[in-house]
Amino acid sequence: MSQMPEQSRPAEEPPDVGELTPPDRTLMGPGPSDVHPRVLRAMSTPLVGHLDPSFIEVMNEVQELLRYTFRTDNQWTIPVSGTGSAAMEAAIGNLVEPGDTALVPTNGYFGGRMASMAERAGGEVVTVDAPWGEPLDPADVADAFDDHQPDVFGFVHAETSTGVRQPDVSELTDIAHAHDAYVVADAVTSLGGVEFRVDEWDLDAAYSGPQKCLSCPPGASPLTLSDRAMDKVLDRETEPRSWYLDLSLLEGYWGEDRAYHHTAPITNVYALREALRLVAEEGIEARWDRHRAIASDLKAGVRELGLEMNAPDAYWLPSLNAVRVPDGVDDATVIDYLLTEYDIEVASGLGDLAGEVWRIGCMGYSARPKNVEYLLAGLAEALAAEGFEG
């Protein structure tokens, strides 16, 4: 046997690790957003067992609140134990079977993640193309269906990498269902902040993350499937490649029987319940309106600084504002200045837009006038330090 390198040997003394004191940031990036104080308090409440009768009641309440937020009557609406990518993989990995053809978009970073997950599920991936920073054109989607006859169609409703919102959702689902395909929508950056209607838009599956417009720590991620989609899941000829995310097994825990499958992240479910209670108290449509109003102020302030938005107004995404980096300004320097001098977090671009945009979130508890004013003041100072005169 090989010996452990000297520097890797276990320490003879316990490590001297002090009390946890993270900085108090204002989170205005692409996620996470600031967590509401009520959600933090909910996370400090006592644990019970994941099959305790009191927790079963919490599960029921979370499902009802998720149905309200998703605007759906789908029975199969749950929080997946994991981050938004776990909910994404649960949707794609269960609906895409080996040999299925999956149609995914190329107009942003998360379309690429859909493609990767569909391939790992054994699907054949084909694409419908659009430039980064533009939504899908329904005519192009129709052409892709005629060319490839896909079994599953995935699209990103709110593309976090580009700040683009997909309009014409009902047109896309009509095209897909005319070809008897299933539609999966990525609502990670829209659920609870931007208009999103599962039943009215006839979506077969949709998923999200709690750490964005819901202002909840990651760990229990929303997912909803129609009866039609669950029928496909339950009638699969082969088991999904992930045991943990096999929805036919999770049905036993989140369905009527509440049979053991895994130990749910109880504290995260508490947090999600409180975050969804806040959505219900505010009213979902009023919440959409608030996000649009606050983000409109942000957009106006950005333009007053002489900067440009990446997305045209027709498909601007209020919850995630992609702002073009002007010539002569280094995006990373501005990001570092905001973090160091103002304790404000924003992010750079991803993929094709790396170094080209700043991604500024306006989500959930972070979508407040004082946050926007604070950010604009810091951004003006950071730009001046770079010599930018808008």
Protein described:
- GO terms for molecular function: transaminase activity.
- The chain has 390 residues and is of the alpha/beta class.
- It has two domains: 26-32 and 284-385, Aspartate Aminotransferase, domain 1 (Alpha-Beta Complex), CATH 3.90.1150; 37-281, Aspartate Aminotransferase, domain 2.
- 39% of the residues lie in helices and 15% in strands.
- It is built from twelve helices and 14 strands.
- The strands form four sheets. Strands 2-10-9-8-5-3-4 form a seven-stranded mixed β-sheet, sandwiched between helices. A three-stranded antiparallel β-sheet has the order 11-14-13, covered by helices on one side. The chain has a two-stranded parallel ribbon with strand order 1-12.
- Helix 3 (84-95) packs across helix 4.
- The radius of gyration is 22 Å and the shape is globular.
Name some characteristics of this structure:
Aminotrans_V_dom; transferase; 2 domains; three-stranded antiparallel sheet; PyrdxlP-dep_Trfase_small; single chain; Pyridoxal-phosphate-dependent aminotransferase family protein; Aspartate Aminotransferase, domain 1; transaminase activity; 390 residues
Give the count of structural domains: 2
Strand tally is: 14
Based on CA inertia axes, which overall geometry fits?
A: globular
The CATH superfamily of the largest domain bears the name Type I PLP-dependent aspartate aminotransferase-like (Major domain)
Structure classification = alpha/beta
CATH class of the largest domain: Alpha Beta
CATH topology of the largest domain: Aspartate Aminotransferase, domain 2
Helical stretch count? 12
In round numbers, the mean pLDDT is 96
The ordered string of helix (H) and strand (E) elements is EHHEHEHEHEEEHEEEHHHHEHEEEH
Q: Report how far the terminal alpha carbons are from each other.
A: 65 Å
Largest beta sheet: what is the strand line-up? 2-10-9-8-5-3-4
Rg, nearest Å:
22 Å
Largest sheet, strands/sense/barrel: 7 strands, mixed
